[in-house]
Amino acid sequence: MEREHDRGVLMEDVDIWDLEFGELDVDRNIIQEFSARHRGSVRISMGLFCTKKEFEKEKKEVLSHPIP
Fold first, then answer.
1. What angle do CA 13, 16, 22 make, to 5 degrees?
2. Which residues pair with 9 in a beta bridge?
3. Rounded to two decimals, what is the model's pTM?
């Protein structure tokens, strides 16, 4: 059952685990900017993480090298 709310739609009797949110687009600059305000991973606050685009680029580069 959905009910209108001033900030969006409030969904009752729906478990958050059953919802599909799709892929997230990660912006490195925004994550690093807000990481100091929240407790969490030291890796993230120091910028020692990679976005999906960066991961796919490096994966493609690594897989392009022949195995000796």
1. 130
2. 4
3. 0.52
